[in-house]
Structures are given as C-alpha cells and as structure tokens.
C-alpha cells in the first residue's frame, strides 16, 4: 500500500546545501515542504567545504547562515599563494576579509555537519524531512509526482513543484530528460585531517609543485581539509590501502615553509579519502520545466578548482525561493530571471575556471614558466589578477575585461 502525502507545495529531492537551504527558507515562509535525503544520517562524503564571501551573503539572505556557524564553520582570513616558482618566504598573501563588507573572509567547514543542521532547521520551520528516502523518482508536468521508498514503505506526493538538488549525480535531471555535456581537465582528491596544530589556522594554502596542485583549508582546532589536484593520467595514484599515507606524504613540498612539515608529519585522517574527476557540466536541455526546477550542481557546474560550487548553490536556491514565495505564478515563465542570471553567472565562472585550471592544474617546465610569467604580470598590474576575484565577490561584480579572449591571451602568451 502506498502512503500518499497531500497538500504539499514543494518536494525537494536532495538534502545537501542547496536542497536543505531551500527547504528551510520555503518552510519558514509558510509553504508545505517535504525534503528527501537518501542518507540515513549525514556522512562525510567529501563535498565542497569552502564557501566564498559572496556565498555567505546568499546564506544570510536565505536565513541559513547560523547553520554554518553552529556546524563549525571557520573563517579563513588570509590566502597564501605558494608555488614551485617562488621562494616560500616571498609567496604572496591576500587579505580575504576586505571584499564583501559585513561578511569577512570565506568559511571552511565540515560539509555533512552543516547539512544536518540545515535539515534540522528546515524541520523546525515546519518541513517534513525524510532521511533514508530511497529510489526517489520524479515525473515532470503540470501535476508533477514524486515517488520514494522509506523503511520499506512506498510513498507518493503530488506537489505544485519539485526542486531537484541531488548534486553532480543529476538524479532528478536524468529522470526528467536533462542530459549534461561534460569536460574533465584533471582529477582531484580530498581528505579531512586533524593534528595540524602548527599550521596557522587563519591561512589557507594553494599552490602548484611538480604534478600536484595542493590546497590546505583550515577548519579550526588543528583540523583541515586537504586537497590535491593532479593529472588525469595519475588517477590511480592514491588508490589502494596505502592511499591516505601517500596523499598526506605528498604535502612534503619545497614550496611550503619548512617543506610542509606542519602538514605531512602531523596530519591524521578523520574522514575518508575520496578521488574524483574534476568535471565541468553543461545542461543540454532547459533546467526549468513544468513542475520541476533544478538547482546547484544538478543544474550544471564549473570546474571545482574555482571553489564556487556552494556559493552558486545558495545563489540558485535564493533565486528560486524568491519566485516561490513572491507570488502564485510558479510556471516556467516565472523563472526566466533565474535562468538569465544563471546563464550569465555560469558563463563567467566557466571562463574563470578554465583560466585557473590552465594556470595551476597543468604541470611541467612549460606550465611552470607560464605561471612564473603570469605571476609577474599580476605583480606589475593588479588587473591581471581579476579572475581571482571570482573566489571572493559575485561574478557580476568582476570587471568585464576579465572575461575577454584578449585578457586570456595576454595572461598566457608565451615568451618567444
């Protein structure tokens, strides 16, 4: 026998940052919301754990910023750009607290703990939160349907709208006929660690050495998320039972102070090591249709090296929630503003991600010389660093010239 849920306004499929924030905001504004999450409890499955200042502003607008604070979000105030082409003592440090007034620097946090708190907030606001919802299936149309299984029982809801927020798996998108074109520039891996007591907890590291683009994102109290991007040809480098040890050992880097001893000699895993292709995704069909709207990575994403995925998810959620709480027209036409803004935003983010990937995630002598030259241009003229602003401020606030082919050619032109 199927349990039917009646009187539901919105079903949100996917309880990550995008889905949980949508459920919390919509329920707070009086809508009847069901949030479906396939995990029984939120686990560390190694998702984005860095959010830009402009993304934090979106969280404030949605009313979910407290979930970040209570979930252990840690402000990172400085960004040091280490590299094999620069002596560690001369690496440039950027003050990240000055870009978005009233917000401060970016935040690093345990993703799963913040998701759990957002889902709890959604439930406190009146949403029905279903953890362990399995085999969710969406049918689009003027009268959409969502079917799922929970604890062996079949369930059915016929809401006014379904929000698909299942991330890069694109579960809802595939079910309603949205396919993705993809490109892969490199691979990456992430591992949450503790023991970094000698690492400055307000400083994030990013840099390139040999065939590694490395990152250290502190999370406070000696905890951090370590990332390494590496060539696709090396995708098996950290597989196997000793993968974690090899991953941590690879933070012994000449470009870091004291060769990275504060990391490689002290880091102890407190989460799983996950490896993935860094996929950029481009939707080939509309992400809004009768009865269904896609948000976050489900709607397409830029290369993860840019670090804007969570900020984009919250921007998507805010835009969609404003439509749903702002009037009775929930037809596809009501989301034209969302679609236009998202296209503009993603065009800029894809362009910027391509530049960052080419600059920091390509390896060998020619790539090192390219970085050396680009860093020299940036030191001479701050305008050459304009693409880096995408990590801090919303794409619409980045000067237009940073998205021109002339700018890219100037930045990467090789010496004769």
From TrEMBL:
Q: Name one GO molecular function term.
A: oxidoreductase activity
Which domain of life does this protein belong to? Bacteria
A Pfam family recorded for this sequence: FAD_binding_3
Ubl conjugation as UniProt keyword: no
Which stretches make up the FAD-binding domain?
Answer: 8-324
InterPro entries on file: FAD-bd, FAD/NAD-bd_sf, PheA/TfdB_FAD_monoxygenase
Q: Which UniProt keywords apply?
A: NAD, Oxidoreductase
**Coiled-coil features, chain-numbered ranges:** none
Decide whether keyword Oxidoreductase is in the record: yes
User: Protein name, please?
Assistant: 2-polyprenyl-6-methoxyphenol hydroxylase
This protein's species is: Lentzea fradiae
Q: What is the lineage of its organism?
A: Bacteria, Bacillati, Actinomycetota, Actinomycetes, Pseudonocardiales
């Amino acid at each position: 026998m199927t349990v039917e849920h009646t009187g539901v306004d919105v079903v949100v499929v996917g309880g990550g940052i995008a889905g949980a924030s949508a459920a919390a905001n919509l329920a707070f504004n009086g809508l009847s919301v069901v949030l479906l999450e396939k995990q029984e409890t939120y686990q560390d499955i190694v998702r984005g754990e860095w959010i830009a200042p402009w993304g934090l502003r979106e969280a404030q607008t949605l009313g979910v910023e407290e979930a970040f604070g209570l979930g252990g979000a840690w402000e990172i105030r400085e960004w040091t750009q280490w590299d094999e082409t620069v002596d560690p003592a001369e690496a440039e440090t950027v003050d990240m607290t000055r870009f978005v007034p009233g917000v401060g620097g970016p935040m690093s946090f345990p993703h799963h703990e913040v998701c759990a708190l957002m889902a709890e907030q959604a439930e406190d606001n009146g949403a029905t939160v279903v953890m362990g919802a399995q085999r969710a299936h969406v049918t689009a149309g003027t009268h959409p349907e969502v079917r799922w299984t929970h604890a062996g029982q079949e369930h059915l809801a016929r809401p006014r709208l379904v929000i698909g927020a299942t991330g890069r798996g694109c579960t809802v998108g595939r079910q309603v006929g949205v396919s993705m074109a993809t490109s892969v520039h490199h691979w990456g891996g992430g591992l949450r660690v503790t023991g970094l007591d000698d690492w400055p907890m307000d400083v994030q590291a990013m840099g390139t050495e040999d065939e590694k683009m490395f990152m250290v994102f502190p999370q406070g109290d000696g905890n951090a998320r370590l990332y390494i991007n590496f060539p696709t040809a090396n995708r098996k480098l950290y597989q196997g039972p000793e993968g974690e040890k090899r991953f941590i050992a690879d933070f012994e880097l000449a470009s870091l102070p004291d060769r990275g001893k504060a990391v490689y000699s002290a880091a102890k895993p407190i989460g799983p090591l996950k490896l993935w292709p860094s996929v950029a995704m481009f939707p080939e069909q509309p992400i809004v249709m009768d009865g269904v709207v896609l948000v976050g990575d489900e709607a397409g994403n830029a290369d993860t090296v840019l670090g804007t995925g969570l900020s984009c998810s919250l921007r998507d959620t805010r835009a969609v929630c404003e439509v749903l709480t702002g009037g009775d027209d929930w037809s596809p036409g009501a989301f034209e503003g969302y679609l236009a803004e998202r296209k503009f935003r993603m065009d800029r983010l894809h362009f910027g991600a391509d530049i960052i990937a080419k600059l920091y995630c390509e390896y060998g002598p020619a790539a090192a010389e390219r970085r050396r030259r680009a860093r020299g241009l940036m030191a001479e003229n701050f305008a050459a660093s304009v693409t880096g602003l995408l990590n801090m401020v919303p794409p619409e606030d980045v000067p237009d010239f940073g998205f021109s082919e002339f700018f890219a050619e100037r930045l990467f032109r090789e010496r004769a």
